[in-house]
Amino acid sequence: MVSARTKMLGRDLWRLRGQVIAAALVVACGIAVLVGMQGAWQSLAIAQERYYASHRFGDVFANVKRAPGGVADQIRVLPGVSVETRIVRDVTGDVPGFSEAATLRLVSMPATGVPVANALFLLYGNYPSPAREGEVVASAAFAAANGLEVGSRVTAVLNGRERQLEVVGIGMSPEYVYEVGQGMVFPDNRRFGVLWMGRDAIASAFGMEGAFNDVTLTLDAGADARQVIGPLDRLLARYGNLGAYGREDQLSHRFLTDELAEIGITATYVPAMFLAVSSFLLYALLSRLVTVQRAEIGLLKAFGYAGRTVALQYLWFGLVTVGAGIAAGIPAGLYLGQLMVALYRQYFHFPQLQAELSPRALVLAVLASTAAATVGAGASVWRATRLPPAEAMRPELPAGFRAGLLDRIGLLRTMPIPLRLILRNLARRPGKAALSMTEIALAVGLMVVGRFGLDGVNQILALQFGRAQHDDVTLI
């Protein structure tokens, strides 16, 4: 049997269904952003951690002009390090079906195909054979953008000589999760790609036999990169060292970690703004409801209902509204998370990047929205609790009036009557006016945040290519 209070709650929800739906939709938007962004963050973070660990992503990196191979033995003396030396060169190449020249980054591979650091994840195909000089493994992003498959050929200029390179495998590396070349900000996989080639073949083409120009160190557990960078710089100083740097400054890793930081920040303040707006909406809605139902509150108390029972009636009103928002927001957030992960797959290349369901985000969403409902309903619930039965059954007394500062200085006399009424009401209820202005400010803030990313990128492009870099073609 349905209780009288349940019937009353149902009637109130139905009578105010438009405002209830509006508040629930605001809650749903906040929950969707929270769940979606937290899910995307968790998906990227888990994929990064697994990939780095399984394929031994380096901790310290250095580039030189040309260093003899014996220097690697001196580097290995440093405590707690494993050393991988390579030959890395950017060359110009021609890709079938693409009229413009592409930049190809050739990265040497050991004869065994298993480097100490930055191991290759081979999607399909084979490693380059030491017996054949023209074989390469192409990065998956570059191959997909240019339609390259196993058996495809690209033309590259190696040390002034044109060479045909055969793609024998498609792979990816933790070093190029975000695959950009020097000076690039956004990936352009048609014009830039990474090719892994046998070390002997690259050394022969560039006269680098018994030498290297790139070194990667992996550190043992507990080793500090800052204590390794200084000695490494001193060892490589005479060989054209450009300065060793830690993982935090490695280009691909920096882009990925910056994106993770941005997602984390967005997943915090955007839902908070939505939930704050929903809290203000519930406050306004329940305040109006308590004012309208003064007589009903008085009757309930006169028939013996305790103030706590009446307060719970209005608190349930807020919780049901927020509950509807949660019910709609969580599925929308899971769908949003899947869309974001699908978008990130176009820019960050992992062997496996799946949308992760974050229980922590779901619990946080429920707790945050419940807290918002409690805060929003709190003031109205307190008013309903404090009303004595006899006072509640009388009409509310009109607010008292006294001349304010604007009246005393005579400023209001020069204004139209509608404007006087507005300013007097604002002056009489400064707290309510401040809350209303805060609610409007949060709503405007949400609109600004929604446009900020696109406007920021447009500003960067306008500054870079409109003022700093005017040229149409750069020849180096």
Structure description:
It is built from 14 helices and eleven strands. The protein has helices at 4-15, 17-54, 71-76, 140-146, 199-206, 225-236, 251-292, 294-302, 307-344, 359-386, 389-392, 405-408, 417-428, 430-468; strands spanning 60-68, 81-86, 88-94, 102-109, 121-125, 135-139, 153-158, 161-172, 192-198, 211-219, 245-246. The protein has two domains: 4-51 and 254-397, no CATH class; 57-247, no CATH class. Strand 7 (153-158) and strand 8 (161-172) form a beta hairpin. The protein is α+β, with helices and mostly antiparallel strands and 476 residues long. The radius of gyration is 33 Å and the shape is elongated.
Q: What is the average per-residue confidence, as pLDDT, rounded to a whole number?
A: 83
Q: Which overall shape is indicated by the principal axes computed on the Cα atoms?
A: elongated
**Separation of termini?**
84 Å
Order of helices and strands: HHEHEEEEEHEEEHEHEHHHHHHHH
